[in-house]
Design a protein that fits this description.
By secondary structure, the chain is an alpha+beta fold. Helices cover about 25% and strands about 40% of the residues. The protein contains 10 helices and 21 strands. Strands 8, 9, 10, 11, 12, 13, 14, 15, 16, 17, 18, 19, 20 and 21 form a 14-stranded mixed sheet that branches. A 4-stranded antiparallel sheet has the order 3-2-5-6, with no helix packed on it. A hairpin with a 6-residue loop joins strand 9 and strand 10. The chain is elongated and about 85 Å long. The N and C termini lie far apart (about 60 Å).
């Protein structure tokens, strides 16, 4: 009997130690179609994650997790699934569609018009959401896709023989026609609905891109610099003109000063500059991420100044009560909205019929958000599409749990371009060299922002003011995705494109 207890004790210890280092990873699928279910909510011990667009999720399991703890999965239109961890033995988790059966709440409220439902949402905002200062544990993934759509030009004049059509063609050919850059950050965000009232405490960050694409361009840049040094005076300045518009650039801004390896003072100065540049980069990286997060938060549909203003200005939209469905056991109104006149977005609102909380919004633009064209310069912000999901916390308030938005921009430049070198120290004719051409180029960016919020707690304004940023984090460069980098942290699972990303240089090796 003693030996039996000892074996049982060993099994428990082994299980506990394995759980401490384990990650629960699975895919949620539809029982009928066998297709993945994106954006389902997965909760374990009051902590939640969201399945990605491929239905996958991962959950970090630590020493506090017991095999009997319940994992619950819910998604709009599906019956919720809740059972102990030790009963999840398959690699996939199946959810079944939930039949729509009107419960007493729906029967009571079924005579509400969509306008009245949206009005109730606005009246209940203060009750349902924390609209003040809060501390949030966030994970932000940004995907930047850049594409060169067109690079036409005609060379009119070049007084520097090396700057000929062959060189410019080689310059254009070396620039990647497509490039994708990923960055991920984990941290604590302090703030409220004002994008200017944000503070960020970075914990960890990564960047994933193909560095080999930069190497060819750097070699071309060195070649360009050699040509400039041979043909351009260091005390020159440049007039860059495009039609009536122009600007001035000093020659010393174009090149880095070379340091003599025997000059100790100069080397120390260079090292100090490099140290300062690194510190500045840390500040810039944190500042950029803080501003990105602030803009995302500021534009949530529960805040009055949002671009998605259907809750606050319902009279500007056509509202249609499209459906009743369920999110877990909660009955939900589904209201479709389309602009009557000049508003930018259409989409769907998912509203809890019991407390009139907005729990999800899907949206997409119906027209370009910006469409500018003047004197050969054009900008077309043609896409803004995504979704916002709120989840109810232990404080009975709803908090942002997931924000996903894709933005698309196209830009064009079709103008004459002239670069003239002048030198005020040369006697006689100041004009030294000239490069003149006509340029017809177009570029496209498709960017995606995925924000996941794991924990949120209200804080006082005094605590917000008292928090001091001290961000010393720079992103770790990755040539291909490394799942081990985020081991021990809850994040949203990367999609297949990220998992399969491999730099050209890595692939060749």
């Amino acid at each position: 009997m003693t030996r039996l207890y000892f074996r049982f004790f060993c099994i428990v210890i082994l299980f506990a130690s394995s759980v401490q280092a384990q990650t629960l990873t699975s895919t949620v699928i539809d029982s009928a179609t066998q297709k993945p279910i994106p954006y389902a909510t997965v909760q374990l011990n009051n902590k939640g994650v969201i399945t990605n667009e491929e239905g996958r999720f991962s959950f970090q399991l630590n020493e506090t997790i017991q095999p009997t703890d319940s994992l619950s999965i819910s998604c709009i239109g599906y019956a919720s699934l809740k059972k102990p961890l030790n009963e999840f033995s398959e690699k996939v988790i199946v959810l079944a569609a939930k039949a729509i059966e009107l419960n007493p709440v729906i029967v009571t409220n079924k005579n509400y018009t969509p306008e009245e439902i949206v009005e109730e949402v606005e009246n209940s905002l203060a009750k349902n959401y924390n609209l003040g200062f809060a501390k949030k544990r966030i994970f932000l993934r940004e995907t930047y896709g850049n594409q060169i759509l067109k690079t036409n030009y005609s060379l009119k004049k070049s007084t520097i023989k090396a700057f000929n059509k062959k060189f410019i063609d080689s310059l254009i050919s070396q620039v990647p026609k497509r490039n994708t850059y990923y960055t991920e950050v984990l941290g604590d965000l302090y703030g409220n609905s004002d994008s200017e009232e944000q503070k960020l405490d970075l914990i960890k960050a990564s960047e994933l891109y193909d560095k080999s694409m930069e190497l060819d361009f750097e070699m071309l840049e060195e070649r360009f610099n050699e040509i400039m040094k041979k043909n351009v005076k260091t005390d020159s300045y440049f007039k860059i003109k495009s039609g009536l518009f122009g600007t001035k650039v000093d020659g010393d801004e174009l090149f880095e000063e070379e340091v003599d390896s025997t000059d100790v003072a100069a080397l120390n100065k260079k090292l100090e500059e490099e140290k300062k540049n690194k510190e500045d980069r840390k500040k810039f990286f944190a500042k950029y991420k803080r501003e990105t997060l602030g803009k995302l938060y500021e534009n949530l549909p529960v805040y009055e100044d949002t671009d998605y203003n259907v809750i606050f200005k319902p009279g500007r939209y056509n509202l249609i009560l499209e459906d009743f469905t369920y999110l877990g056991d909660a009955a939900v109104y589904v209201i479709r909205f389309t602009p009557k006149r000049s508003e930018d977005f259409r989409g769907k609102l998912f509203i809890n019929s019991d407390d009139f909380a907005l729990i999800r919004m899907d949206f997409e633009n119906v027209k370009p958000l910006r469409d500018f064209s003047l004197l050969g310069v054009s900008i077309n912000e043609y896409l803004a599409k995504g979704r916002v999901i709120f989840s109810k916390g232990n404080d009975a308030k709803y908090h942002l749990s997931y924000y996903d938005i894709s933005k698309g921009i196209k830009a064009g430049f079709r103008r004459p371009l002239k670069i003239i070198e002048k030198n005020k120290n040369v006697k006689g004719r100041r004009k030294q060299n000239e490069l003149s051409m006509k340029v017809d180029a177009a570029f496209g960016n498709l960017n995606r922002y995925e924000l996941v919020v794991f924990d949120e707690a209200p804080i006082s304004e005094a605590k917000f003011e008292g928090f001091k940023e001290n961000n010393l984090v720079l992103p770790k460069y990755m040539s291909n995705y490394d799942a081990e980098f985020w081991k021990g942290y809850d994040i949203i699972e990367p999609n297949q494109a990220i998992k399969e990303f491999t730099s050209i240089g890595e692939a060749e090796e």
